[in-house]
Amino acid sequence: MKPDISVKLCSIKLQNPIILASGTCGFGEEIAKFLNLNKVGALITKTITLKPKEGNPPPRIAEVEGGIINSIGLENPGIKSFVKDKLPFLRKLKIPFFVSISGETEDEFAELAKILDKEKNISAIELNLSCPNLKQGKNLFGQDPKITYETIKKVKEVTSIPIIAKLTPQVKDITEIALACHKANCDIISLINTIPAMVIDLRTGKPFLGGISGGLSGPAIKTVALKMVYDVAKVVDTPIIGCGGIMNGKDAVEFILAGASAVSVGTANLISPDSAQKTTEEIENYLIQRKINSVKKLIGKSLD
Amino acid sequence: MKPDISVKLCSIKLQNPIILASGTCGFGEEIAKFLNLNKVGALITKTITLKPKEGNPPPRIAEVEGGIINSIGLENPGIKSFVKDKLPFLRKLKIPFFVSISGETEDEFAELAKILDKEKNISAIELNLSCPNLKQGKNLFGQDPKITYETIKKVKEVTSIPIIAKLTPQVKDITEIALACHKANCDIISLINTIPAMVIDLRTGKPFLGGISGGLSGPAIKTVALKMVYDVAKVVDTPIIGCGGIMNGKDAVEFILAGASAVSVGTANLISPDSAQKTTEEIENYLIQRKINSVKKLIGKSLD
Amino acid sequence: MPLRQILILNNKEITSGYFLMKLSSPRIAQNTLPGQFLHIKCSTNNNLLLRRPLSIHRVINKDTIEILYKVVGKGTLCLSKKKKGEKIDCIGPLGNGFQLPKTDNQKHKTEIILVAGGIGIAPLIFLSQELAKSRIVAFLGAKTKDEILCAKELKNMNAEIHVSTEDGSLGYKGLVSNLLKNKLLTLNSKLSIIYACGPKGMLKEIALLSKEHQIPCQVSFEQFMGCGIGICNACVIRTKQGYKRVCKDGPVFDAEEIDWEKI
Amino acid sequence: MPLRQILILNNKEITSGYFLMKLSSPRIAQNTLPGQFLHIKCSTNNNLLLRRPLSIHRVINKDTIEILYKVVGKGTLCLSKKKKGEKIDCIGPLGNGFQLPKTDNQKHKTEIILVAGGIGIAPLIFLSQELAKSRIVAFLGAKTKDEILCAKELKNMNAEIHVSTEDGSLGYKGLVSNLLKNKLLTLNSKLSIIYACGPKGMLKEIALLSKEHQIPCQVSFEQFMGCGIGICNACVIRTKQGYKRVCKDGPVFDAEEIDWEKI
Ligand SMILES: Cc1cc2nc3c(=O)[nH]c(=O)nc-3n(C[C@H](O)[C@H](O)[C@H](O)COP(=O)(O)OP(=O)(O)OC[C@H]3O[C@@H](n4cnc5c(N)ncnc54)[C@H](O)[C@@H]3O)c2cc1C
Ligand SMILES: Cc1cc2nc3c(=O)[nH]c(=O)nc-3n(C[C@H](O)[C@H](O)[C@H](O)COP(=O)(O)OP(=O)(O)OC[C@H]3O[C@@H](n4cnc5c(N)ncnc54)[C@H](O)[C@@H]3O)c2cc1C
Ligand SMILES: Cc1cc2nc3c(=O)[nH]c(=O)nc-3n(C[C@H](O)[C@H](O)[C@H](O)COP(=O)(O)O)c2cc1C
Ligand SMILES: Cc1cc2nc3c(=O)[nH]c(=O)nc-3n(C[C@H](O)[C@H](O)[C@H](O)COP(=O)(O)O)c2cc1C
Ligand code: FES
Ligand code: FES
Asked: Does residue D72 share a domain with residue D25?
């Protein structure tokens, strides 16, 4: 008997817990040639900003021990072009998709959400809080509980679409931020984004990436992400999307045991665009082997 | 012609830039059976507390992708036994050694420093600021610029031994903390300590480590540490000891280029107690290959 | 397009540091264009997560293709150790490929100028195969004579060959772009087209020459890649319309499209 | 004590999942005690950073030793793939080893009771070699009969052998501690000593029995290790005097020393 691998994120039903992470599946079109998108749990778009962004100078990616560092710099076509050119494809999918947005101020987040609120079929909006708050110098939105709270509040005022707060690991205490999300009635918490990192090119003696530093993702960050998911699951009951270095079914199960209701995979998509499918099968096999009839039974079980 | 690989950390001269990191060389005695200690740059003792500490329940170590996670829990015999049983061996070494200390309050740090101030031959005291400040709930000393500043100030009042602040990576902005160290006239900054992380044992579904979570070290954290060293070197001129995932000479050179005047190796010692020696040779070879006559020329060169 | 585990039929070192690998894949052999590449997982080790892009070097028959590669780092080193009979995980063919003259008539009339810098020769052999109807003039540049590859193959296709080496160990001493510059003064065909592949510096010189002589020019770029299929935007280069993806919008671009100032 | 690259003379699977590896090292062969272990780097891959502790199983002659190991995870799997002629990076011999009766006379008088749970037999063969002068009674327990190892070697040393298997496929059906319990009622020597190695649960049972029967008992522990040489405090177990390091203060402890309640 096949186990039940469907899960729920607030009101959103996913046929399985595997979500394609923001920035690692574009807007779905290209990856669809390698992966049957209608078989994944959900898809999160690349982060969209108000104006188009051209991103950082290349090289934009470096390969390091157990991971990769990217400094794409949020290259994206802007919300207008997204709505016109990218949404139609996404709407045809039979799975939920979430739109990731990022603003330079709290109001910009709200403005973006307002635009998306008018569009049909968007299952959730993910706030990418790992970007600098221009009103606060170089601080990121997700580094301050108050700003996190207010950004979510402002967004929730202008839309009834469920809101996901995607948190940055570069914080003093992730539970502080998660509590702020909870207080702001955030529907879902997604964590973690990449960890700031850099590489020096020994041939030149200079930083290797065009953007000087970037974000570390992949297996190297898995245990760090897992700890943050576990810590957050202890303090809030908001559903969690776990993310960071998930390369296979076992990794995914670890995050689910730590308290995630679903997981998102990033780096794995770049390496093999069909990895979501394999990861899903591996979760299923894990459940079959252990004679567990539903993946929901594993959620947060390590916390008991 | 052999290149000059000696470096200076404030007034302390090291014959080479390789330091054995705190907690990964004990108090020198055991590792001395595998490594000629008089050939390393310096040694930092395991962190000492006022009272003996028995540490966390086992298992205390897990092996993960690109690193290890430890939850030793600062097991140590306490300052009294350290002075009586461990210092005599260290004093006989011909290299500088630094004593790492940790307190539960700022005053405890000062108290420990006062005791050490009376002892001869200690080249520097390293303040392990990655430990919880009992007056501030679960916050770590090194997570707050003010507390970092005050701890260093209080210690500097009671001793003239040079002070090293060892920073935790679990912060919003490492430069804030480094600036606080600088303002407090800290002599040397050491970074980074391990990154909080955990492993879930899939056989039991529970956290694997006795201490539930621990600190990630090894290659997986190298690029994160490097970024922090680079960022700190940009804002302060305090000499830096770079640390995190240094496994060979190339890694060490990357840290030096990023702004470190010396580096400390941790995990590498556990794997091969003589790795410091190999790393030193590799730095030398790097310099010879590139015809650079002094390692000092590399310090901070990536920042130019 | 499915992912495939592809059988290695052969993997031999043809000159120090350069390997020729024969792969069995009817799907690729029958569906690829000159200039396209495979994105290859060289190892399952986690210090080598990303795939490596390698051009289709030759289509041998309807089942078999070849790649030609230089060992420059971890990925190509791992690849060089693979044995006949093993399988490798390849995505592809990917990318847009070179634009060829459309009709046989056009092919006949066009003079094809190939410019290869070092391992840049790799995709140009497949291209020459497809342009067998045309007159081919090939400019091969490398550091030293051992790294001048595929001259024999080109000769067999009746190509006119010009060689340059930086150390002067074979042919013209100097950069292949300078050699081309000299020859362009004497070559005189109205229907020429330049296809170039090699380091960025060389491509830039070639692009300048092509502009000067008003010869259409297509260049194939190398860029460190993430996904290879257009989803991550890691592989961009500057064009006059902003950044474009080498993996999806390229690797071949019209020289005119590129913002050479900013490269 | 220097680190050494040690030559593998042989590495063969003796029964499904269990390997016997012969190593050439005069230094180790001539300087080791029963109960000591080697700390072995099984791979240079960064997902396998730490060494793995394996007991000296036998000293064959003054140049050669053997280790006996069970494949349970990545490290032992890597080890099992090593071939004769390769070298491995070993630190050791490490740890304190078993305390033996001091004089030949004592050895003669003492009845040695060995208790092995599964792969716990590994160090006990070397111990038996050293105690050839004593009467040896060995209790071997395992899940199933295929995992009862070294019975022949023990027989050759004139040991009395008792076997238990959890599935009853050989000897007593049940745990080896229960088998020992039954036998202890009949054994009756004033100068007995128990040496035990196996899973913690078994050691605890044995320790209780030894206390009850007032027989001195030494137990050898397994614990996941970091350094293996006493610097990191990763490998501790609870003793009545607080945590002690298995690698340096052990792996052999007096059963009395251990705080069995908290294990
Ligand atoms: C479309 C396309 C087609 C190609 N076709 C061919 C072909 O047919 N034959 C061929 O030989 N080559 C070809 N190449 C080039 C080939 O892809 C590279 O040589 C190969 O990927 C190198 O991989 P590697 O692991 O051996 O080297 P790497 O170890 O990856 O080193 C390659 C370069 O990557 C950079 N780099 C990456 N990460 C880091 C880091 N962390 N720190 C510092 N530097 C870093 C450096 O510049 C380094 O020199 C092609 C490239 C492209 C884009
Ligand atoms: C002194 C001593 C002597 C020994 N002598 C022998 C001997 O002679 N023969 C022999 O066969 N064995 C011996 N052992 C046991 C042997 O050391 C282990 O079986 C071996 O280290 C296992 O390594 P592995 O990589 O194969 O397994 P691993 O993959 O390391 O798994 C082993 C165990 O490690 C734990 N573990 C470690 N990290 C993690 C993690 N991240 N998540 C979950 N679990 C984890 C788990 O409990 C797991 O079951 C000895 C042990 C000691 C301490
Ligand atoms: C190339 C690349 C681009 C990314 N772009 C975004 C992005 O636009 N928005 C975002 O919220 N996260 C982005 N991320 C972060 C991922 O969504 C994910 O949080 C992170 O990579 C950790 O997961 P992983 O280890 O599975 O990759 C990006 C990651 C990568 C590797
Ligand atoms: C087993 C172990 C014990 C450690 N104990 C201490 C300690 O007592 N005090 C301290 O400041 N750092 C301690 N550290 C951190 C190291 O000094 C070092 O900062 C960290 O491991 C990162 O360096 P690495 O990647 O080279 O190991 C310990 C690290 C390990 C692995
Ligand atoms: S490599 Fe990902 S878009 Fe080109
Ligand atoms: S393993 Fe390091 S002290 Fe025992």
From this structure: yes
Q: Which ligand is nearest to the CA of D73?
A: 2
Interhelix angle A222-235/A249-258, rounded to 10 degrees, is: 30
Shortest CA distance from D225: residue in chain B = B61
**One domain for residues C44 and C134:** no
- CATH code at B277? 3.20.20.70
Q: A29, A30, A48, A208: best mutation site toward chain C, by most C Cβ within 10 Å?
A: A30
Say what percent of chain C tops pLDDT 70: 97
Residues C65 and C134 in one domain: no
List chain D residues with CB under 8 Å of C45. Answer: 45
Q: Are residues C57 and C119 in the same domain?
A: no
Selected for mutation to probe chain D from B30, B76, B203, B278 (highest D CB count within 10 Å) is B30
Question: Is C100 domain-assigned?
Answer: no
Rounded to a whole number of angstroms, the distance from the CA of A25 to the nearest CA of chain C is: 5
Which residues of chain D have a CB within 8 Å of the CB of B54?
242-243
Shared domain check, C79 and C33: yes
Give the CA count within 13 Å in the CB-facing half-sphere of C146.
7
Active-site choice (B10, B25, B131, B181) = B131
Task: Write out the residue range of the structural domain in which residue B85 sits.
Answer: 7-55+74-195+217-303
- CATH number at D36 reads 2.40.30.10
Choosing from A53, A71, A267 the residue with most ligand 3 atoms within 8 A of its CB, the one to mutate for a pocket test is A267
For residue C29, what pLDDT band results from cuts at 50, 70 and 90?
very high
> What DSSP character marks residue D248?
T
Ligand 5: nearest atom to the Cα of C236: 4
Residue A1 pLDDT level (bands cut at 50, 70, 90): confident
On whether residue D104 sits in a domain, the answer given is no
D23 within some domain: yes
CA–CA separation, B146 and A137 (whole Å): 20
Residues of D in contact with A65 (CB under 8 A): 46
Tens-place pLDDT, residues C149-200: 998 989 988 888 999 999 989 889 989 998 888 888 876 666 789 999 999 9
- Closest approach of A190 to chain C, Cα-based (Å): 20
Strand pairing partners for D242?
D239
Provide the number of structural domains found in chain B.
1
Q: What is the ipTM of this complex?
A: 0.95
- At A57 the pLDDT is 95
- Strands across the sheet containing D252-254: D172-173, D160-165, D135-142, D111-117, D192-197, D217-220, D252-254
For C190-243, the pLDDT digits (tens) are 678 999 999 999 999 999 999 988 889 999 999 999 999 999 999 999 999 999
Beta bridge partners of B263: B18, B242
Find the B284 Cα to ligand 1 centroid distance in Å: 28
A250-292 pLDDT, tens digit per residue, is 999 999 999 999 999 999 999 999 999 999 999 999 999 999 9
Examine the pLDDT at B126 and tell me if it is beyond 90.
yes
Mean pLDDT of A131-154: 89
Does one domain contain both D144 and D242?
Answer: yes
A31 Ramachandran zone, left/alpha/beta (phi>0; psi -120 to 50): alpha
CB B105: neighbour CB atoms within 10 A? 16
Determine whether the shortest distance from the Cβ of D81 to ligand 2 is under 6 A.
no
Confidence category of residue D192, pLDDT binned at 50, 70, 90:
confident
CATH of the domain at D246: 3.40.50.80
Is the CB of C225 inside a 6 Å radius of any atom of ligand 5? yes
Distance from CA of A130 to the nearest CA of C (A): 18
Q: How many domains does chain D have?
A: 2
Same domain, D124 and D90: no
Angle ∠(D247,D251,D253) on CA atoms, nearest 5: 130
Share of chain A above pLDDT 90, in %: 96
Last residue of a domain, one of C65, C94, C123: C94
Q: Are residues C161 and C222 in the same domain?
A: yes
Q: Are D227 and B275 a contacting pair, CB within 8 Å?
A: no
Q: What is the pLDDT of residue C188?
A: 66
CB of C225 less than 8 A from some CB of A: yes
C182 vs D47: CA distance, rounded Å: 55
